[in-house]
């Protein structure tokens, strides 16, 4: 449970900065591994920006065994495998919801949506 929360927190941090499309095209390819296996990113690709590795949440969370849901009305991303982690693009806080209640935690950078 803490493992998934830590992974999702890292993912939030990774998605923290807006990346100009031109910079993403010229940046070197980033390879991400989970449990020794390379994670495939079918849509958006991971990038390094401002000393952060930014990765698409869905691909990495699903590789970790979590289900991912995106609620466009609330602009909230929820990933769960017993623990739910919710965050909103553009906000530097997230919440972890488990049997023990809800914990709000801060991220040092806000996640973002790129290209829809």
Short description:
With 116 residues, the chain is α+β, with helices and mostly antiparallel strands.
Which range best describes the helical content: under 10%, 10-25%, 25-40%, 40-55%, 55-70% or over 70%? 10-25%
The largest β sheet comes out as: 5 strands, antiparallel
Number of helices: 3
Radius of gyration: 14 Å
Terminal CA distance reads 30 Å
Label the structural class. alpha+beta
Count of distinct strands: 9
The amount of beta strand, in percent, is 25-35%
Pick out the low-confidence regions. 16-24
Q: Which strand order do you get reading across the main beta sheet?
A: 5-6-7-8-9
Layout of helices and strands:
Layout: H1 2-14, H2 21-26, E1 33-34, E2 37-38, E3 47-49, E4 52-54, H3 57-63, E5 67-71, E6 76-80, E7 84-87, E8 93-98, E9 101-106
Antiparallel strand pairs: 1-2, 3-4, 5-6, 6-7, 7-8, 8-9
Structure characterization notes:
By secondary structure, this protein is of the alpha+beta class. 22% of the residues lie in helices and 31% in strands. The chain is built from three helices and nine strands. The protein has helices spanning 2-14, 21-26, 57-63; strands at residues 33-34, 37-38, 47-49, 52-54, 67-71, 76-80, 84-87, 93-98, 101-106. A five-stranded antiparallel β-sheet has the order 5-6-7-8-9, covered by helices on one side. Strand 6 and strand 7 (84-87) form a beta hairpin. The chain starts with a helix and ends in a 10-residue tail after the last strand. Mean pLDDT is 78; it is low at 16-24.
